Amino acid sequence: MHLVQILLPTTDASGSPFAPELFASVREELTRTFGGMTFHRSAPAEGLWLSDAGVERDAIVTAEVMVNEIDHQRWANMRKDLEARFNQDVIVIRALPITRL
Asked: What's the confidence (pLDDT) of residue 67?
């Protein structure tokens, strides 16, 4: 089993918050596709990375789903779709092996 985590920014490049409907559409899509999901968004995490412009940062929330198998093409397609919806160069989607207890 795997825990798939999708790291989503809370604001656009100008610092304006994304509309709640954008996150609702992700929540609904993941729930419909995988039968459930978890959103960690009560206290956004801070993402930092180095670029040519210096240190950049994002406030991020995490959407999670548990899956038995990883369909790499499905997740690549979802990443591209989310990058377009959130107007981002990169959306990080990562998977961790887990044991369900």
From this structure: 96
